[in-house]
Amino acid sequence: MPNLYTSQTQEDIRLRFINKFDELIENELAESYKQICINIEITPESFNQIRNKKGLPTLKMLYNLQLVYNVPVESILFERTAHVNLALLQKQLAILHETLDQIDDTLSA
Question: Which of 42, 55, 65, 88 is most buried per CB count within 10 Å?
Fold first, then answer.
């Protein structure tokens, strides 16, 4: 299977994963690394391997972190999360609404 990410991207993902653990503890949402590991169903040894650059977080780890602690997967996979362009979204909704009105008028005729 081909690598989906460069080695630098993999390293960035690894570091963001570790940083999320630190943030959870700093924000008092978890007491320890061990508690987070138990809650997201990984062994502390797995986490230590990731910390020691001997492993990478799996999608299951990221998913469980999201389920248990509401940490968005994309906040780990990507440098920054996507921001909603509200003006563009409103414009697209207006166009959609207008199109639906035209369809409704056609069907009503």
Answer: 65
